[in-house]
């Protein structure tokens, strides 16, 4: 295990506390940069979605994880970003302009949502954000002159400085990766500045934050605006990746998926948002795999254990029937959410920390290190 | 003119007069204690000063400025910091970030500068950090710097709350029962710190306290309160001998 | 005028269903501060059980109804025991997510078992109508209203006249204090979940003749029941029913008098407006944390 000797206040401010970080993140970045030349086009496509989902995950983390304001309406912010881009594209506005415009419009709407949200806490806020998202969905479906209603809108191929960037090109992937990395760096910067600390203060005790001079209302609105802006940016990329957008793509289901991203990753860390995004995006290929290959493999295993060919065939068709059941994805989502909340509240990243600590301290690791503290029923009714 | 002044302050919850026409003044550099039985309205006075509650009537002045209508976050900006009776720390953050939030009133950087972490932000952060380190040293909090609050014992939390208030470099500090829940040793430490705060840091102290020995050791003056009304005001000895105060404590 | 009364009655009927779901939210919330996002799905499941008993096994309507209610009461206890109790006292958001997960799970499993077609339960009063002059009111709608009133009366009696009900009220006021007073808080919470699942089942069975049962019905109606519960203040049992009726009427009026599209969003617009003006809902109390 490594001991850090701090000799300067700078040591606590640095993004990378020691050289090990620089090496491992450098390596990761290098791998991500050569990915397009190694991975199949299908996996590359999934990787782009990972970048987009992770960006939204970080945005949600700022609002929900750090400021403590729950939102089940982020699909609506994504939609506003996507539609702003698609609409401005019709008038041949160049990419950098509509990219920024999408972020700005979403940010403004985010701030507007933030204002009524100021007086709401807990469950009321969750319900208000759901309502907001449902209303946005309906507006998108009805405002046909702008959004083309339920017909949806085509999104033209991205063109950057006169070069067309197809949605499955490496350049598009790099663009998404850059947006993600910049978002993460910006968020880390925020977290080591007064604003980020004010967010955390509001999350943990509004009363104390106020008494320390934090203008709680202002910072909540800021948090909403920042989170929405980032989601708006992600929305532009999302629209380009799909090349077609329609209202039913931005439902409550999607908002819940975003929450799952941070819940599964770990609601307290940026690593978590990325891990959660990988998880959510990869669940589809995983289910496809389950459907296509798993039954054969299971039957093979059964055969090696001495099952007759007839039984093995039976098992195979049963497994196939199970894997292609309609609601399987929903059921898996449901089970995963419940299991994570019950058993791994710190998410995948928390699990990783535990494993790391286990090896660092081996054989002295104590389970109790990460044990949840006993909490007795504490009312959140009067905050 | 007095440094800090409350005039005819009242706070009613429905029919209950939690604070009832209370007037008092705090002189610059003194330690003034408020005592009184449970439910006398002591914490309510603090909550009025830090604008958690809006007074039913009455006015509050600080440095000759009427602060009755100031928004709550501005109170800290004026230089009034406080601690809470039941400890209101930022549970899921480290001690260091808790203390740095105390520096919030001195932060001047803009959001966009922070997003880019410009050199000005970095320089500011170092200044904040230096001040925080001074407070950490003053209150002997070195071992806890990087610990999460949620894992710390009660006594330490109490000190951290005091530290957070001091980090804002207040002119006036409001301490709500600083010794409650502390053992004898910790209470001794607390009494030294309170006196040092006055003599070394030049902070004016307004304090609510039940522990009479602590009150006697540190206070310049004492106010006794019951049912939201002032019973007596004066030196610690005078107030404790006052017949109304004796009666209030004996429950007669 | 006639149209108005027709709309009013169907609005009230629909609103009663919302109200019953909202009632489930409120019961559980009052007892444990848990907001059960799977409440609508409990209703859906109750509907499917009733369908199984009545439509598939051919039981008498009332016996099937009672069977579904009993089954779901047990299921509610099970859900509480498995999903909610282990995390009671953790941040509200975690608990909300757990119940969202539960909802997903129930929806998918129901879809797997009962398929994705719309199902219908034959009821003794499916067909009939009540004629008053030129006013025509369907019995199935009236039955929802009547049943809601009966249920509310029963619940009121239960909470105010029985020991268990009093214990529940006590533990919903202050769980720790109730525990110290010797009230078996865990059992109380268990019973609260049973009741709320049973109430949800009633809503599901009553709803069956009006809209069909399918695996997503709980999600759709559950989302409408939120505005109802919030309007009612999220802590008040009569408030929930009044809120539900309000939302039902607003929805049905908006569907009739306003341009297309308003029907679905009107409840949410009203909800946001109310929250803006009165963040605690119409009947909610404003309580502040004491420091
Ligand atoms: N938010 C509130 N709503 C209603 N009554 C309140 C509220 N806050 C305080 N009170 C009441 O006001 C009175 C004074 O309360 P306060 O907390 O100021 O007492 P205190 O002197 O600090 O007592 P203690 O020594 O127990 O801390 C009490 O009767 C209390 O119940
Ligand atoms: Mg007090």
TrEMBL record, chain A:
Domain of life: Bacteria
Membrane topology of this protein: Multi-pass membrane protein
GO CC annotations, alphabetized: plasma membrane
Pfam (any one): BPD_transp_2
UniProt keyword list: Cell membrane, Membrane, Transmembrane, Transmembrane helix
Subcellular location(s) per record: Cell membrane
Coiled coil start-end: none
Primary location recorded for the protein, binned into one broad class: membrane
Signal peptide limits: none
Gene Ontology molecular function: branched-chain amino acid transmembrane transporter activity
Name of protein: ABC transporter permease protein
Lineage: Bacteria, Pseudomonadati, Pseudomonadota, Alphaproteobacteria, Hyphomicrobiales
UniProtKB/TrEMBL annotation, chain B:
InterPro entries the record matches: AAA+_ATPase, ABC_AA/LPS_Transport, ABC_transporter-like_ATP-bd, BCA_ABC_TP_C, P-loop_NTPase
Domain of life of the source: Bacteria
Pfam families, sorted: ABC_tran, BCA_ABC_TP_C
Transmembrane segments: none
Domain ABC transporter: 4-252
Molecular function per GO: ATP binding
UniProt xrefs under SMART domains: AAA (SM00382)
Keywords, alphabetical: ATP-binding, Nucleotide-binding, Transport
Function of the protein: Involved in beta-(1-->2)glucan export. Transmembrane domains (TMD) form a pore in the inner membrane and the ATP-binding domain (NBD) is responsible for energy generation.
Classification via PANTHER family: ABC TRANSPORTER ATP-BINDING PROTEIN, CONSERVED COMPONENT OF ABC TRANSPORTER FOR NATURAL AMINO ACIDS-RELATED
Name by which UniProt lists this protein: ABC transporter ATP-binding protein
Organism encoding this protein: Bradyrhizobium vignae
